[in-house]
Amino acid sequence: MAGWEKINDHILQNKRAEYAKEIVSSLSTQLVNQYGKSFAERNLRRMMQFAEQFSDYGIVSSLMTQLSWTHFIELLPLKSQEAKLFYANKIAEEKWSVRQTRKQIERKVFERTEIAKIQEVDKKTELAVFKDPYFLDFLGLKDGYLENDLESA
């Protein structure tokens, strides 16, 4: 029975997927006839992908005034949301063209920046080791020693 349910669910999901493809295709045809080829099926799928990946209206509304649709299309293939937001903010701050954006993504600027941040944190923790107090109880020293006494000994 459990196997049947899994197979049945799988088949139903595939039918739903096929049905969804037909709906998008049909909707695209209607929109192209009414508004022009900007609503071709490929673009409509990109719009759906954009809506899924950039679901926070506050972020989208502020970025829409500074980024073109082509910029957003360049960001869609990126895997992490952090990378998308990083590049979107950089595009807005530094006024990157689409070509510059593509080059920066190819150069993996986000990944390099993250690695640099991690290395910076590591350096800070390395220096913090020297700031930690020394516990020398195991030496059996008296409490009356100053650091100067230990240095001169």
Automatic annotation (TrEMBL):
Pfam families in the cross-refs: DUF1016_N
YhcG N-terminal domain segment(s): 6-112
Protein name: YhcG N-terminal domain-containing protein
Originating species: Candidatus Magnetoglobus multicellularis str. Araruama
